[in-house]
Amino acid sequence: MPGTVDSRTERRPGGDVPLEAWTLRNAAGWSVEVLSHGGIVSAVWVPDRAGVLDDVVLGHASLGGWLGENRPYFGALVGRYANRIARGELTLDGEVHRLFCNDGQNHLHGGRRGFDKQPWAGTPRQSGDRVGVLLRRRSPHGEEGYPGNLDVEAGIALTGAGELVFEVRATTDRPTVVNLCHHGYFDLDCGADPDVLGHLLTVDASRFTPVGPGLIPTGELRPVAGTPFDFRRPTPLGANIGDPDPQLWLAGGYDHNWVLDRPGLGGPPAARLEGRRSGRVLEVFTTEPGLQVYTGNFLDGTIPGKRGRPCGHRAGVTLETQHFPDSPHQPAFPTTVLRPGESYRTTTVYRFSVA
C-alpha cells in the first residue's frame, strides 16, 4: 500500500509569499511535515516499542515561531554553508568575499538570512512506497556575501521502511563554497525527561576536530580514544559531558564535528541514537565526511515548544551530516569549493526503528 502526500497553503502573517506545508505519510501511519519556509522538517511522527506514535523532533509551539527568527535552526535546511566560517572571510582564486557575521566575529549557518529563513518552491513526489517533496531555490550572487548564483534542489522523502531521506543537489555559475545540512533536534523519548542526556549515542568515528575560541576548528584531527568524545561504543550522552575537558568547556557541552571512519550509505551507520525509555532507535547514514553532534547547550527554556513545554537546556540533540566547519581556511580538510560545470551532491538517511 503506497503512502500519501497532503499539502496545504497558508498566508504568512504580514507577508506576500504563501507558506506551503506537506505532510508525508507512509502505509504504517508514520508521518513527516515539511514547510516551504526554510526547508524545515517541523514534525516527525514515529512509533515507540509499544507502537505509540509521537513527534521525535523539537520545534516551536506555533507557526509564528517557525516563521520568526528560529535562532536554534529547529528542523531547518541550513546553508549556503552549514556551521562556521572564521571571521566571515572567504577567499576563492585570490578574491576575498566578506560574509555576514552573525555569530560574534564568525559566519554561522549561512548568515543573517540563510537558507533556513528563505522560501522554497516545492513539488510533491511519489514513487512506490516513497513519498516526498522536491524543494527548489536559487540563491542569488551576493546573498549573505557568497559569490555565484547557486541553484539548489533538495528532495525530502519518507519511505515505507521508516527512513527520512535527504538528497540535495546544487550547481553554480561561478566558484563558491557549499555545505548544506539538516538541523533537526531529536528527542526520541518525546519529553519524558527534561533533557536527552540519557539517550545512548554511537558514532563511527575515531577522530574529531577540536576547536578554539568561537568554536572554530584548530585544524587538528584528534583521536577520540581516552577522551569524552569517544562514542565508538553505545554511551549515554551525559556520561562524560560534565568532565573537566577544555573542549567541553569551550562549547558548554558537545558542539563538535566527528571525522567519520566509513561514510557512505551501504556500510555501518555513521551514528546510532537510542531513547532508552521509548525504545526508539535512529540510525544515520550519509555520504558526508563529518557529523556535528550538538547537545542543545544554548537552549535556555525561553522558546515555547511542543506539548506546552519550553525548549530547555539540552532538550534535544542534533546529528548534522556535513563537511567540516571552517573548511575554507583549512586546506587539509575535505574541500567545499564548487565550480561551474561541477555538481554538489549529498545524501543522508535517518532510519527509525525500535530496540
How are the secondary structure elements laid out?
Elements: E1 4-10, E2 19-25, E3 31-35, E4 41-47, E5 53-55, H1 63-67, E6 76-78, E7 84-85, E8 89-92, E9 95-98, E10 107-108, E11 121-127, E12 130-139, E13 150-158, E14 163-172, E15 176-177, E16 181-183, E17 185-186, E18 200-203, E19 207-209, E20 222-223, E21 235-236, H2 246-251, E22 255-259, E23 271-274, E24 280-286, E25 290-294, E26 317-322, E27 337-338, E28 344-354
Antiparallel strand pairs: 1-2, 2-3, 3-4, 4-5, 6-16, 7-10, 8-9, 11-12, 12-13, 13-14, 14-28, 15-27, 17-26, 18-21, 18-23, 19-20, 19-22, 22-25, 23-24, 24-28, 25-26
Q: Quick summary of this structure?
A:
The protein has helices spanning 63-67, 246-251, and strands spanning 4-10, 19-25, 31-35, 41-47, 53-55, 76-78, 84-85, 89-92, 95-98, 107-108, 121-127, 130-139, 150-158, 163-172, 176-177, 181-183, 185-186, 200-203, 207-209, 222-223, 235-236, 255-259, 271-274, 280-286, 290-294, 317-322, 337-338, 344-354.
